Amino acid sequence: MGIKGIVKKAVEVGEMGFNKDGGAINWFPGHMAAATRAIRSRLKLSDLVIEVRDARIPFSSANQDLQPQLSAKRRVIALNKKDLANTNVLNKWVRYFDSSNQDCLPINAHSRSSVRKLLALVEFKLKEVISREPTLLVMVVGVPNVGKSALINSIHQIASTRFSVQEKMKRATVGPLPGVTQDIAGYKIAHQPSIYVLDTPGVLVPNIPNIETGLKLALAGSVKDSVVGEDRIVQYLLTVLNTRGTPLHWKHLAKQMEEITQIFEDKPGYNPKDLRPKMKKLPNASDLLYVKDLVREVQHALYVSLSEFGGNIEDENGMECLIEHQFEVLQKALKIPHKSSEARLMVSKKFLTLFRTGKLGSFVLDDVPELNREP
To answer: Considering only CA atoms, which of 194, 117, 105 is closest in space to residue 186?
Structure first.
């Protein structure tokens, strides 16, 4: 089935929380409602907003309910996890935001140099108000699991190196600001004026606008797997990969796998685990090599399954048959016993982990929109 077919089938799964008419995903725990109210009130006090989005889904990871308020503020969109995103497509997104007069910067929240570039841009954007305000507040907002906590931690670490020993690692309370309660705390990143960065909880919109957006958020980990179901998320991921022909780009792995297979056939006593070095001086080297071999087998299995498929992937039934076959070859590639009652779930979880950690390659799932569409 094509992407529309996957979406259609997703509607039929009640536990996903999809509306029957193909509308929204309802995933809005009570704490998110309270957090959203707090964010809205504090946005009024902010001098600048850092909106963190997932670089793999630059449009889908935006909280659309907050966009009217966010777009009215000084804002920098930080496309985090750039190391997991296709560079060429990500650059097109940056050009799109630039053409929309929106500051945008791809970042890796775990990289100090990357975060320093973001802070430099923030301070530059605040120059126009520095002369008027002695204290400036920067808010960090974003949906769950886009890397806000990692960014805040990096900002804190960088900030702690800028001040005296007495001020290092000090968490500054931003209570004196009008309308801000005493329990709001932020990290000071600059003197004269004092600039504080304030973290906020990750919140989704009460209703995710369409099912495909919801599946992308689930694939990126912003919606809990249990809400959508790992099996359904992997079906969507495989549909995207097959539709784009991504496994066909892994053709070079076929020869590598044939060579490895030939070694095993020539020496029947070999075991795949023999490819791992002895764990003496490098305790993690064995695991790294094993993961590398595992990824290679997974990519090879998907390449073969797609290249040898005789059906029509543009037909829903054809795609469905291909995906079912790919679950079988993935089970073998991932070394999951066929007798396991939870084999399909185990396949889904392991395959999702490979995708989310970038082991399968770098991807951007959102298409760059037309210039007249809101980012």
So the answer is: 194
Element (H, E) at 49: strand 48-54
Tokens of 86: 């296709």
User: How is residue 277 annotated by DSSP?
Assistant: P
d(CA 51, CA 139): 8
E strand segments, the chain: 25-26, 48-54, 75-80, 103-106, 135-141, 172-173, 185-190, 194-198, 207-208
- For strands 185-190 and 172-173, give the pairing: antiparallel
Provide the phi-psi class of 20: left if phi over 0, else alpha when psi is between -120 and 50, else beta: alpha
The DSSP bridge pattern shows strands 25-26 and 103-106 to be: unpaired
DSSP letter, residue 117? H
Bridge partners, residue 243, by sequence: none
Tell me the HSE value of 179 on the side-chain side, using a 13 A CA sphere: 10
pTM surpassing 0.85?
A: no
Bridge partner residues of 49 (DSSP): 75, 139
DSSP 175-219: TTSTT--TT-EEEEEETTTEEEEE-------SEESSHHHHHHHHH
- The segments of the chain whose pLDDT lies below 50 read 10-24, 165-166, 168-184, 263-264, 270, 272-283
Give the pLDDT score at 45: 83
Q: Strand, helix or coil at 139?
A: strand
